[in-house]
Amino acid sequence: MTINDFQIDPKLLEQKEIKRCQLATCRGGCCADGVWLDVDQAERILDHAEMIKPFMPEDRRDQSTWFAELHDDDASFPSGKYTGTTIVPDEAHPSGTCCRFLRPEDHFCAIQYASLQNSMQPWTLKPLYCCLYPIVDDYDGGVKTLTIDSDNDLFSRGGGCHDECPGTLSPIFQIYAEEISIMLGVEGYRELCAIQQETPRL
Ligand code: SF4
Ligand code: SF4
Predict the structure, then answer these.
(1) Atom of ligand 2 nearest to the CA of 26
(2) Has residue 24 been placed in a domain?
(3) In this structure, is residue 25 part of a structural domain?
(4) Could you tell which of 88, 98, 102 is best to mutate to test the pocket of ligand 1, judged by most ligand atoms within 8 Å of the CB?
């Protein structure tokens, strides 16, 4: 099945009894290694640096240390260039290290937290792949596939994305409707619901 140029991985159609993010349990496990992001997104975050800094630990506020080197070998990034957030030691994180934007006190992303505190939508500045996770896109030979990351060693290091939640049997694309809609659009998500004879959540 293809919707809005994305192949839909059958894994997204599977029925599971799992629940959405429980930060108190996983402590932001998916933020262990930072994230790759388009350089345009990184520049937008830097443009809002003064807004974000108050919500980070003092020793992480030097914006010259926020991002790593540039790369240009992955055409799936819209600008053609991408970078990564840098990581720092953090005893509060299950991995012992994490993205420097992860707040040790509550495991919230400082970028999202700062956006909310400034009356912006939570995902306005947050890197795309952070908003999507544990939904991921896969580019292979020009074919784009939307799937779920169910085979990642971060889970053995404390990621809790697939916590069981008895009595909540639902297709994975419904559990992660908000994330699916980022890539397919809400109309694309609703098209998927119609094909699968599901009532849309959005
Ligand atoms: S940018 Fe935010 S959500 Fe993304 S890895 Fe860093 S702390 Fe986590
Ligand atoms: S995606 Fe997984 S590891 Fe990341 S915050 Fe949600 S439950 Fe935790």
Answers:
(1) 8
(2) no
(3) no
(4) 102
